[in-house]
Amino acid sequence: MKDCIRAFFEDQMPGVDDDTRNSIYADYRAMAAELYAELSAKRAENAALEVVDRLAHTLKGNALQVGDEPLFEVVQAWRAALKEGDKELVKSLW
Predict the structure, then answer these.
(1) How far apart, in whole angstroms, are the C-alpha atoms of residue 9 and residue 13?
(2) Nearest CA-CA partner of 68 in 28, 16, 33
(3) In this structure, are residues 77 and 93 in contact, taking their beta carbons and an 8 Å threshold?
(4) 9-19 pLDDT, tens digit each
């Protein structure tokens, strides 16, 4: 588990046992992997910006809910670059 997520859990859920935290983290990782796969597929299909952005927004929100700040920040920057049409930044952040 990432240190930032562990710290978030300890701060936000101080009385929760490790099994519960690990279960929440496992669910988050599975959901993030599914969203990333779907996002990748939509990008490959050249799906509409709204479709890709909605998936990225969901991924960003899930990251925020568990304290995954690095992923949150990258997805947030990626969404902004995508909306601005900065193809080079989109590519480098991906």
Answers:
(1) 5
(2) 28
(3) yes
(4) 999 999 889 99
